[in-house]
Amino acid sequence: MDLDGVIVFKGWNLKGGLNLEGHKDLSRQYSIINTAIPNELIYPLVDRSGNVQTALVKAGERVLKGQVIAGSKGVQGTLLHAASSGLVKENEWRMIAHPSGLKSECLIIATDGLDECCPVDEPVDYTQLSAADICEKVHQAGIVGLGGAGFPTAVKITPNNVRTIDTLIINGVECEPYITCDDRLMQQYPSEILLGIQVLLRALAIENCVIGIEEDMPEAIEAIQKAIECSGFNQIQVKVVPAVYPAGGERQLIYQLTGRETPNQGFPADVGVVCQNVGTVMAVYQAIVKGQVLIERVVTVTGMGINKPQNMWARIGTPIKDLVSQCGGYNGPIERLIMGGLMMGFSLPDDDVGITKATNCILVATSKEVTKSSEAEMQPCIRCGECALACPVNLLPQQIYWHSQGGAHQKCQSFGLFDCIECGCCDVVCPSHIPLVQYLRASKSKVFLKRREDEAAMLAKQRFERRDTRKAQEKVAQEQRIRLKKLALVKLQKESASSPVKMQDKS
Amino acid sequence: MLWICLLFAILGVILGYAAFRFKVEGEPLVVEIEALLPQTQCGQCSFPGCKPYAEAIAQGKADINQCPPGGEVGVKALADLLGLDAKPLDESFGIEKEKKVAVIVEADCIGCTLCIQACPVDAILGAAKYMHTVIASECTGCDLCVEPCPVDCIVMSPIKPSVLNWQWPEPIQNRH
Ligand code: SF4
Ligand code: SF4
Ligand code: SF4
Ligand code: SF4
User: Fold this and answer.
1) For chain B, what percent of residues have pLDDT higher than 90?
2) pTM above the 0.95 mark?
3) CB B50 to CB A444 under 8 A?
4) d(Cα B85, Cα B78) in Å, to the nearest integer?
5) ipTM higher than threshold 0.85
6) Which of A76, A123, A465, A483 has its CA 20 to 30 A from that of B75?
């Protein structure tokens, strides 16, 4: 491989992290395949972060591919588009892509197999578009971060007066084991990705861009490098980072590539950086250069429990079972069906769940790959400190675990609970098999719940007080009314006493 | 008629001014105690709301274990604040129950507005002779609307688990 002009990091300059077995060869060498139109497309009306999507189409309505079918409100609102043509069914409660395994209301399209498209925008020359135009188009195309977090991309690239951005970082580090969708994208679509980057640079009005790629993705590095040479976009730099998990964590990558430290619970923008995942850049290319909205993404379907692991262009909303059947079906008994990666993903109890924009991987794991719940063998903490050594964000997981067990969730916060990126490194190394991340997540949940309850209590208090004031005012007004009436009556009586004739006339 | 309107307007202004001019700063201790109460405003503590109970505690007229919605956790928090020993909830005021929300069976509602008048936190919407609805997110589950309803169309239903209120569970603890 020709590595001229590519900056290679000799060492891992972050504390912690793990060298994990990649298992990437299961899927990385096969081209991304197209998938068949599923019979049903399933769209949850709430996303993983709890944003509610409002359906914009009615049951019985025919929708076309690319038509807006739902949207969420607010500055961070996003749009959802139909991935194929068909009839909208009555909303149903279905299991959704969520760690709870609970059912939630879903919008369902019964596809008609015609795949009839909405009229699309004429492709435009992106160099003629203003930054505002690009942001608006990115929003209209329903693009969110495809790396997993699902944050609306338009919000990230809309300029704001508070923070100045000078660097665009493209995250091509797929540090989680098994996942190869970004690797394949870079191998197969390098020039498209570069164009997507140009569009983003234009929107941000900056020149500086660094693509971070993991060292064990030589084909992707070469493909991107070649494309840069051919296109002449020389301001785009490729930097190779060591294959250490979690090198692809946003803050970890920014530090690795620029030496800048994102403040705790701050944003990359605080250090002048916008970070985008390779898949998101591809979606931006498709939206701006091709005029296509986001209705499909690359998903790695892999694991020893599947017959033919590979990457596939899957329509958002496609049930997992449809993808599995196009990969030759299950291969023997399955231990866990995981959405996302081995480390950060979550198990699903069923395969009749629609994939979302954030689904990068379906891992069909056998008992050889994942152990059964390790809780059975959990031992007391021996204070060995391994977990703290492995933690990439410098936390003391054993301390947080200790306080969370005692129910002192507020105390956990002072030990940096909310800086934990839930990478799972501490879990893996703990000799006592303590499910540390799960304790930490439970603790976070508790803190969030407490905040929600406090907020609700405060509002209830305000409404109670308003009602009290209102009642007091009503009482005063009522008394006043009675007094006035009495006064009037007395006056009337006086008048009638002084002129009885008049009174008689009146009656 | 016009005069009455004018009079009320003037009265309003006077009231407003009085509220502003004679505003007393809430006693800091009462405020601190009140912040620990759940604001369900159910009156089970025998006071007409959380604030009156907070005032009674501050004046030593009520014990700290009279609020069932606050439960043991609430008693503990009050004990910590006041430097007292925690004690079990006084069950004569009620027992700690799972939080519920009121739901009006809309088909049965006759639009009498009695529940609206009973709700301490304005969580019910409706007008005379029209069907009423509970705004679930604003309902504190205080039960006060159930009793006044003449056609018994208000039920207290448990909060359904959903992806919006779901929490990561703690690992099952079966050590050794
Ligand atoms: S899961 Fe959290 S505490 Fe554990 S290693 Fe990762 S960041 Fe550190
Ligand atoms: S690695 Fe496990 S046993 Fe060691 S200190 Fe951390 S929690 Fe305790
Ligand atoms: S019992 Fe508790 S929640 Fe109910 S009014 Fe009294 S202090 Fe408030
Ligand atoms: S709706 Fe009923 S239960 Fe809910 S807060 Fe109002 S009165 Fe209480």
Assistant:
1) 54
2) no
3) no
4) 9
5) no
6) A465
